[in-house]
Design a protein that fits this description.
With 239 residues, the chain is an all-alpha fold. It is built from eight helices and no strands.
Length: 239
């Protein structure tokens, strides 16, 4: 199993949130080295969780605010009557619980898929790469946030001429699906990471490593679990 020792890996200085974002987007080689070393990965993991949580929180503020402005929002009509703050809180909890819960639930399967596809790695490596993928998706979601805000405000504040179907598409459905669209960036990140891992490690004798199959299986499982988790929290807290 491949693991770069602390002496071989390039040590990273203490990272603040902006540094982690830059590491995810621009300094990918350094991120690869950090994720390959158990000590650096252990230090990086909570920072990835923090970046993902902050980005989801910012998105929940905008999405919850848009739902509060809507006259008859999907799923949360009873909650939005209480005001914007409860709506924002429920949306935030739904995304955090749904996405992180799906991530935790799919980690054992992801490690099992890695073994099946001939990738020799550690459980902690799968965990940090999965969280790196989620943090990358959250950063991309933060970049898409102004677009959703502009579209949502345009439909919410329009005085007339906009049908109910267009409003639902622009505010409700777009708001619920945009985190999963941004998740494609995480899929690409994980595919790149495990492809690099296969190039660096020696495949098991007589087996051909298939990193893309691993990423596909993990993505299907996560995509099935995450919406269910988000919907469950919305239905329980937003009813």
């Amino acid at each position: 199993m491949l693991s770069i020792s602390s002496s071989e890996a390039k040590l990273l200085p203490p990272l603040e949130a902006p540094d982690v974002v830059e590491l995810l987007i621009r300094r990918r080689d350094e991120a690869d080295a950090a994720c390959a070393d158990v000590e650096q990965a252990t230090a990086l993991l909570p920072r990835l969780v923090a970046v993902s949580t902050v980005a989801l929180g910012a998105y929940a503020v905008v999405h919850g605010g848009m739902l509060s402005l809507a006259e008859d929002p999907l799923f949360l009509d009873a909650l939005t009557a209480r005001g914007p703050l409860p709506t924002i809180g429920v949306v935030f909890l739904a995304y955090v619980a749904g996405l992180f819960g799906a991530q935790v639930a799919s980690l054992p399967s992801a490690y099992f898929y890695a073994l099946l596809t001939g990738i020799r790695t550690h459980g902690w490596r799968v965990a940090v790469e999965a969280m790196r993928a989620q943090a990358t998706s959250a950063v991309v979601l933060l970049g898409l946030l102004p677009v959703y805000l502009a579209v949502g405000l345009g439909f919410s504040l329009s005085s007339g001429g906009v049908g109910e179907g267009f409003r639902i598409l622009a505010i409700d459905l777009l708001g619920y699906t945009l985190p999963f669209v941004a998740g494609l960036a995480g899929v690409i990140t994980m595919g790149r990471a495990f492809s690099a891992l296969v190039r660096e490690a020696r495949p098991e004798p007589g087996r051909r490593a298939m990193p893309l199959l691993l990423v596909f299986a993990w993505s299907v499982l996560f995509t099935a679990l995450a919406p269910l988790g988000v919907w469950r929290v919305l239905s329980v807290l937003g009813g």
